[in-house]
Automatic annotation (TrEMBL):
One of its GO terms (molecular function) is transmembrane transporter activity. Pfam families: MFS_1 (PF07690). The chain crosses the membrane at residues 12-34, 46-63, 75-94, 100-116, 137-160, 183-201, 233-256, 282-304, 311-332, 338-363, 375-397, 403-422. It is found in: Membrane. Keywords: Membrane, Transmembrane, Transmembrane helix, Transport. It is a multi-pass membrane protein. GO terms for cellular component: membrane. This is MFS transporter. Residues 433-452 are annotated as: Disordered. It comes from Pseudoduganella aquatica. The keyword Transport applies. Residues 10-428 form the Major facilitator superfamily (MFS) profile domain.
C-alpha cells in the first residue's frame, strides 16, 4: 500500500509531533528524577521511581500491533496528547493533596504507558504518510525536533523551576523538601497547556496515516505476528551476542545518567557540587544537549566514512572513557561553573559521538530480515531495559558508596561494553565491503567477531 500522502506540508506536523513526543518522554523519565530529588527523596528513591517509568517505553513493541488495529493513527496521537495534557494538569493539582507522593508516582506510571502509545502512533503517522524519499528528507528535521524536547524540558523548565522556587515563592534553593511543590506545580501546568496547544495544532495539520500492509486484523493475528517475529529473531546466527551488545553497550552510561544530575545539585558537604536548579538546567539542558547533538553529527560522519566494523572499538572508547570526567569532578569538587560545564560537555559530546554506533549496529546487523522494524524495536527495548535496571540500582549504590567510589564503579562498569564490542558479530554488509565480498554471505552459525 502506498503511503497516504499528507494534504499539508510535513513541515507543519513533523517538527511539532516529535517535539511533543520528546517533551512527554523527558518530563516523565528524566525531569521527574530532579523533581523527586527537589521534593526530598533520597537518591535511591528518586532514581528508582523515575527509572521505572522507562518500562512502558521498553515494552511498547509488544502492544504496537494492537494500536494499529483500531481507528486511525492520528486518532491515537490526538487521544494520547489530550490524556497527557490532562494528566500533567492532574499532577499539578495532586501536589496539593495530603500524601501526594504515592499518588504522583502512580499517575506518572499510568502516563508513561500513554506516552509510549503516543510514540507508537506518531511514528506510525510518519512512516505511513511519507514515501521513502520524504522519510529520508525529513529524517534530520525529525531528529532535531525531538532533541528540542530535552532542551525545553531538561534545560528551560528545570531552570524555570529554580527561578520560581527562589524568586517567586521565596524559598531557600539549597533546601530540598515539600516547599518545592509550589514551583513544580507551575511547571506541570505549563507542560499541560503546551501539550494541549500541540494537540489542537495537530487536529488541523496532521494527516491520518495509512494502514500498513501487514497490519493485523484481529488480536489473534497480532499475537501470531509477534510470536513469529520473536521466533525469527532468535533463529538468527549470533543472536545472543547481539542481544548482549544491545543490553550492555551503554551499561556505564545507564549508571551515570541519573546520578550525574544528583551529583551536581547535592551539597558540597555530601560530596556534590552544590549547583542550583537554574545552573543545572543551563549546563545539562543547554550546553550538554548541544554537545550531544554535535557529537552525534560527527559520529555519524565518522562511521559513514570508515564503516561500523572498523570504528566500533573507537566508538566504544568514546562512550565510556570520558565518564572519568565525573570521577575527576567528584575528587576535586570544583566550584568553577566553567570547569563543571567543560566536564559535562566533554562527557556528553563523546556520548553522542559513540552512541551512533549502537543505533547503526542494530539497523545493520540485528534488524535485517522479515520483521526489521520489530527486531530493531526489540534492540532499542533492550537499551531501555538496561537504562531502567541501572537507574533503579544506581541511586542505592551511590548512597552506599559515596560519590568518589561510585564513579570508580562506573568506570569498572565500562568493561562489559568493551567485551561485547569485541565479540559483536557482523553478518551483514556495513556499507564498506567490496561488492565481490558482499556477494558472498557468511554461513549461518559462523559469526564474524569484531577485531579491535
Amino acid at each position: 500500500m502506498p503511503p497516504n500522502r499528507p494534504s499539508t506540508s510535513p513541515l507543519l506536523w513533523v517538527p511539532t509531533g516529535y517535539f511533543t513526543m520528546a517533551l512527554a518522554y523527558v518530563m516523565l523519565t528524566s525531569v521527574s528524577s530532579i523533581m523527586f530529588k527537589n521534593l526530598g527523596m533520597d537518591n535511591g528513591q528518586a532514581a528508582g521511581y523515575s527509572s521505572m517509568l522507562i518500562f512502558a517505553y521498553t515494552i511498547k513493541p509488544l502492544f504496537a500491533p494492537f494500536v494499529d488495529m483500531y481507528r486511525t493513527k492520528k486518532f491515537f496521537v490526538l487521544a494520547t496528547q489530550l490524556l497527557l495534557a490532562l494528566g500533567f494538569g492532574a499532577i499539578a493539582l495532586a501536589m496539593a493533596m495530603p500524601g501526594a507522593m504515592a499518588l504522583l508516582v502512580a499517575m506518572f506510571v499510568l502516563m508513561s504507558f500513554i506516552g509510549a502509545t503516543q510514540d507508537i502512533a506518531s511514528d506510525g503517522v510518519y512512516v505511513t504518510s511519507l514515501d521513502s524519499r520524504s522519510q529520508s528528507l525529513y529524517c534530520g528535521i525529525q531528529s532535531l525536533s525531538w532533541n528540542v524536547g530535552p532542551i525545553v524540558a531538561s534545560g528551560g523548565l528545570v531552570y524555570l523551576s529554580g527561578r520560581l522556587h527562589a524568586d517567586v515563592f521565596g524559598h531557600d534553593p539549597k533546601t530540598f523538601g515539600p516547599e518545592w511543590m509550589d514551583a513544580w506545580r507551575v511547571i506541570f501546568i505549563i507542560v499541560a497547556v503546551l501539550t494541549l496547544v500541540m494537540m489542537a495544532w495537530h487536529v488541523r495539520v496532521m494527516p491520518d496515516g495509512a494502514r500498513a500492509p501487514d497490519t493485523p486484523s484481529s488480536a489473534a493475528e497480532a499475537r501470531r505476528i509477534l510470536v513469529d517475529a520473536f521466533r525469527t529473531l532468535f533463529a538468527k546466527p549470533g543472536v545472543w551476542l547481539m542481544i548482549a551488545f544491545a543490553f550492555l553497550f551503554r551499561l556505564s552510561v545507564g549508571f551515570l545518567e541519573k546520578i550525574g544530575p544528583f551529583f551536581m545539585v547535592d551539597p558540597v558537604a555530601k560530596g556534590g557540587l552544590g549547583l542550583s536548579n537554574e545552573q543545572l538546567g543551563i549546563i545539562y539542558g543547554t550546553y550538554g544537549l548541544a554537545a550531544v547533538l554535535l557529537g552525534s553529527l560527527l559520529g555519524g560522519w565518522f562511521v559513514a566514512r570508515r564503516g561500523l566494523k572498523s570504528t566500533l572499538f573507537t566508538l566504544c572508547c568514546a562512550i565510556n572513557i570520558p565518564n572519568a570526567t565525573f570521577l575527576v569532578m567528584s575528587i576535586y569538587q570544583p566550584d568553577s561553573l566553567l570547569a563543571i560545564s567543560a566536564g559535562v560537555v566533554i562527557e556528553k559530546f563523546f556520548f553522542g559521538f559513540g552512541a551512533v554506533g549502537f543505533m547503526i549496529y542494530l539497523m545493520q546487523q540485528l534488524a535485517p530480515g522479515k520483521y526489521a522494524t520489530t527486531h530493531y524495536a526489540f534492540g532499542t527495548g533492550l537499551m531501555g531495559l538496561c537504562g531502567m535496571v541501572t537507574g533503579v540500582l544506581s541511586g542505592h549504590l551511590q548512597q552506599m558508596m559515596g560519590y568518589v567510589p561510585y564513579f570508580i564503579f562506573v568506570m569498572v562498569a565500562t568493561i562489559p561494553s568493551f567485551i561485547v564490542c569485541w565479540k559483536a558479530p557482523f553478518h551483514h554488509d556495513d556499507g564498506m565491503q567490496d561488492p565481490a565480498q558482499a556477494a558472498k554471505p557468511e554461513p549461518d552459525g559462523a559469526p564474524s567477531g569484531y577485531s579491535a
